[in-house]
Amino acid sequence: MLQVVGLAEQAALPHRLQDVLRHPILGSLLPQAGYAAMGEVGPRPGEPIGLLLNALTLGALIAYALFDLALTEPRRTRWKAWALAAIIATAVVLPTVKLILLREGSGPASYTHDGGVIQTEATIQYLLAGKNPYTEDYVDTPMAEWGFSEYRTALYHYPYLPWTFIFSAPFYLLGQAVGFYDQRIVYLLLFATMLPAAAKLAEGAAFRLALVAVLALNPIMALDVIFGQNDVFVLAWIVFALAAWRTALQRRSAGQDGGRWLALSALCFGLACASKPTAWFLAPFYGLL
User: Fold this and answer.
1) Is 32 inside a domain boundary?
2) Residue 110 near residue 126, CB atoms below 8 Å
3) Which residues contact 215 (CB under 8 A, 6 or more apart)?
4) What is the pTM of this model?
5) Which one of 35, 130, 193, 240 is least enclosed by Cβ atoms within 10 Å?
6) How many whole angstroms separate alpha carbon 22 and alpha carbon 275?
């Protein structure tokens, strides 16, 4: 798992080693003798499951390099794709699942991002209760417990646009039906859907693998997914818009109608703009396509 330092880490990961060891699922993944053999775990991330995921990621990375050097096409691309999928799983997906489990066992204000998860879940609850998330405050939600007393954030306003919680509301209802919900489940689903769509934007196997690796494994986006910041949400809709636009061009080149795909592209980009203002800066460039 990627290393995190600073205020956010102190606020969201207060007792991760102890919480991992006593968690009913995470604590049972390794034998007690294995935990004892590690001694005083450090440096950060400093807990056995994180170190195990680091080792698995390194192993998958070495396998990727060996496949690239030793195999020939088409086996090379196929096995490199599997190795890349393993890297993404052990470096991003499984660390996210780990923090979701730790949060479930430690409380809603722990092991997560404040606005992207805690407050977004609260806005969904307000929406389903018929309340306006933009006029309600968040002083009686887990947002008031996140961080330190001198660093409380966004208790009196919701800083994001509505598509994030509107899209997530059905997943929240499904989670309530099964007895468990974490906003990062939605982000992981979009993350997993976005990467195959992004691969369609590049020509050639090497460029497709490179694009997927850059989107999935750059430290900014990987940490966003793990802690539940909502940048992956807006990025996914931008990628969907570009993938639909490319499909429209391909259909036109083949003499087929691409109008519906262009409409879908515009819709997806509009939804990105309705998710977070960061997408607005791309609007002039999207208009030039």
Assistant:
1) no
2) no
3) 194, 195, 198, 221, 235, 239
4) 0.89
5) 130
6) 37
Residue at 253: amino acid letter: S
Domain interval for residue 140: 113-181
Write down the mean pLDDT value for the chain.
Answer: 88
Q: 29 to each of 33, 35, 53, how far by Cα in Å?
A: 12, 10, 12
Q: Which residues contact 94 (CB under 8 A, 6 or more apart)?
A: 53
CA distance 172 to 33: 39
Whether the pLDDT of residue 12 is over 50: the answer is no
Token representation of residue 140: 């009686």
* Angle subtended at Cα 136 by Cα 164 and Cα 277, rounded to the nearest 5 degrees: 35
Considering its fold, how many domains does the chain have in total?
1
Q: Is residue 36 part of a domain?
A: no
Assess if residue 191 is contained within a domain: no
